[in-house]
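Each lists sequence, tokenised fold; shown next:
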Amino acid sequence: MKEFWDSRYKSEDYAYGKEPNVFFADQIGNIPPGKLLLPCEGEGRNAVFAAALGWEVDAVDFSESGREKALTFAKKSDVNFKYYINKIEEYKAPTEFYDAIGLVYAHFHKQNRNKIHTELIKFLKPGGWIILEAFSKKQIPYNSGGPKDLDMLYDVNDLKQDFGSFKKVIQQELLVELDEGEFHRGKAMVVRYVGRKA
């Protein structure tokens, strides 16, 4: 898997573009800046955007080529953030450390999803935010991106299970038009979630 992502990010072009995910950008802009964790951050498009808003960003991914491009992008954008090479299930942070966590197309297999989300919740302060956009299980017929394995895709019930203790702000499944670089383009079925930790 690491080899796949290193290969995808080795191209000079940014696989998912340089603009942030639209939903993430809309939501993070409504929250006073603090400490932000971005798992599976790839080439840094969301980290650069959030850092420019004043967030103190920790990005995590296991791709060395993704990290290299992200930090180059940050330097050219005159922002700074930390970027850790790690599998997110092995990443360690203090309990109740972050003000927000952005999960942008951070797909985990159903055998591990709840466990990983539960660990991430521990890193979040009371009153902290989860912002999530991911491909829906109804994405399979579309060729606009995402895993072609149902066990890697999400539905609203998965989010209810994982974030059931949160105060739900947004929870929806909808058809959108993606325009995020070469690999996220066209009509797509996604799930979106914003919740606040009790």
Summary: The chain has a mean pLDDT of 96. The chain has one domain: 2-6+19-182.
